[in-house]
Input
Amino acid sequence: MTTAAGIDPSVPPSGEGCAECDASGGWWFHLRRCAQCGHIGCCDSSPAQHARAHAGATGHGIIRSFEPGEDWFWDFGTDEPLDGPDLAPPQHHPVEQPAPGPRGRVPADWQRHLH
Ligand SMILES: [Zn+2]
Ligand SMILES: [Zn+2]
Output
């Protein structure tokens, strides 16, 4: 099959959590995977919205959900969903990792911090 621009199915995800939140001790609600380079970032509902920030900084406009059971893609350029291929495994973060996550870094009043 042909692969859409902005999607490289051969690149594995960067890790199990948001790259920037893990570096700064932050936390996230849901995780998104850059379909171009595998960067894992946090979703638009998360306090820091690192997935969208990554797209803005790099021009990598297409993400896929990194949540268990979700395989949808999203194009930040058009703010529309789109179809995409299977990506290099793993397809989602470990199922034992909670959302919001990661365990131990989520404040008790986390819902107040969502966008
Ligand atoms: Zn983040
Ligand atoms: Zn990227």
